[in-house]
Amino acid sequence: MTDRSRIANVRSIIEQTEGKAARRGSKNGRNLVPVTRRRQERTRGSDERDLVSVDDRARAELQSMEEGKLFTERQLDLLGIIHPKSRNRGLIDALRQLRTKLYSLRPDGNFSVLVSSVVPQGGGSFTALNLAATIAFDKAKTSLLVDANMYNPVIHKLLKLIGREDSHGLLEYLEHPELGVEHIVSPSGVPRMRVIPIGRNDEISAEHFTSARYKQLMHDIKSRYDNRFVVVDGPAMTTSADAKILSDLCDFTVLVVPYGGVTSGVLDSVVDEIDESRLAGVVINDQPS
Q1: Cβ(16)–Cβ(277) under 8 Å?
Q2: Which residues fall within 8 angstroms of residue 250, CB to CB, at 6 or more apart?
């Protein structure tokens, strides 16, 4: 999470009423947006964690809404997380542009958006994290970042830094009906930004995301607060069937492509797999300045 950011293009692929042919034809006129590719490594704890009882739901929800320990501006810079006073104004302006694009697609309410790299290590997690942070700039809005990348999760690293490494996560919630949403939402160290880590489960299965419980979760976390915007950090589109499933369950999808790392044929094949009404755009990552 310490890589330096570079300028990249955010390419609007479609308007909601355009077809696939028109979408492909619109790839040339696009706006600048900065993102960074980061290499992530999953660490999984070995200690068993006790489940929170149903009787503690109200207390857990109050605790989850507390800001807890917040990162300083210096710490955010070191972590590669933007904040209103970040010196990289180009990065801030570009991510604000991406945020505004998403707002324009849902002007009358909040939304959920999947951010997924086309290929592994393409910068999807960095883009998701900083999009959520950018939404939280606005004191009238909150963001919730959901780590749904079972093979390369990142949020647990933030929670470890703020002393919340024992927090329950998504996989535990899907496996244990006694856990409520309030038990898996944690502070992030960033004001007005909450996170749901991937959690811990010995058996990783794509069936998690096709379950009725996951679908209900996505509905609940978006509808509970009308000023909450949900950003889902998903796995790479070309290596996991989970990404397509997650895309179908979010309002919008943003694809992240490493500069020079994906052929137009691969990109087109991924784009064709996504519902046209959900594809918000493509981010080109690590473009040389």
Answers
A1: yes
A2: 112, 113, 114, 218, 230, 232, 278
In a domain, 44, yes or no: no
Residue 53: inside a domain, yes or no?
A: no
Q: How many domains does the chain have?
A: 1
Q: Which domain holds residue 64?
A: 6-37+59-285
User: Does residue 54 form part of some domain?
Assistant: no
DSSP β-bridge partners for residue 186 = 195
Cα 33 from Cα 191, distance rounded (Å): 23
Output the pTM of the full model. 0.79
Give the CATH number, domain containing residue 186: 3.40.50.300
Dump pLDDT digits (tens) for 83-131: 999 998 988 988 999 999 999 999 999 999 999 999 998 999 999 999 9
